[in-house]
Write a structure and sequence with these properties.
Helices cover 13% and strands 28% of the residues. It is α+β, with helices and mostly antiparallel strands and 106 residues long. Strands 2-3-4 form a three-stranded mixed sheet, with no helix packed on it. It has a two-stranded antiparallel sheet with strand order 1-5. It is globular.
Length: 106
């Protein structure tokens, strides 16, 4: 799910969080490859994510970005027992570039 902002509501900064993951941890790849139109069907991808969360199989899942082609995002299952060993290594604060939003300058 993506957050939608109205003009003037956008925070000045966003945070990128780099995490440290123990090398022995498994990461499950959640690839909705069986549907070519998965980006248009959030209920389909939500079902995949919900099933992964309930399985408690891994503390992290790697998922394709719906916004940037050929890139991946990581999802943390905070209820997984190993999630406690995953720590924030660095917080990077960046300003939003208004060109990313319809109300921004072009």
């Amino acid at each position: 799910m993506h957050i939608q902002f109205e003009e003037g509501e956008l925070p000045d900064e966003f945070q990128l969080i780099q995490i440290a993951i123990p090398e022995e941890y498994s990461i499950r790849e959640l690839e909705p490859s069986s549907r070519l139109d998965w980006k248009e069907h959030p209920n389909y991808t939500q079902h995949i994510g919900d099933a992964w969360l309930a399985s408690m199989e891994t503390p992290l899942a790697r998922v394709p970005s719906a916004i940037v082609p050929r890139t991946w995002n990581y999802v943390l299952n905070p209820l997984h027992p190993q999630a406690k060993q995953i720590v924030v290594a660095e917080v990077i604060r960046e300003r939003f570039d208004n060109r990313l939003f319809r109300f921004g300058s072009r």
